[in-house]
Amino acid sequence: MRLILICLLFSTPLIAQQYYCNNGSVSFFSEAPIENIEAVNNEVSAIVDSQTGGFAFRLKIEDFTFPISLMQEHINESYLESEKYPLSTFTGSIAGFSELDLSKQHNLKVKGELTIHGISKNTEMIANAQLKNGNLHISSTFDVVLDNYDVDIPKIMMYKIAEVIQVVVDMKLQNKNDE
Alpha helix (H) ranges present in the chain? Predict the structure, then answer.
């Protein structure tokens, strides 16, 4: 009997669905007295494992597009130092994900490690998740304190760049098993 169970365990593939995308969107908004700054990156890679609730995304800092190219140049060179720290990542998990009825929208607690500017910090956010037309739609809005990630904003620039920026995540992930 024991041998049969061991054989079944190793002969039966684990049925875990993975959802992924390479065109997720992450945007940020900085509201300051003199100037607002906003940018969007539509080339974000992400993956969700439906069995474990594991969730990760990765983006290149230089893929953020700004309405003014000079603004993009200053952010990349002076503040986020994208040549030295080219990636921002999040690795974590969505609590109770495997038990959800994804045909309904859920507000979920996501915990993990967010890395920006080469600094990793534990973070927690609320995300919305729902299956729509076979795609897993995940969205979230949260704040990032730039000082926590050693993004140095000179005092003279504090009227142009906020100390806390709002980040918006919006992703439609495809079922990897549907390929």
Answer: 2-11, 69-74
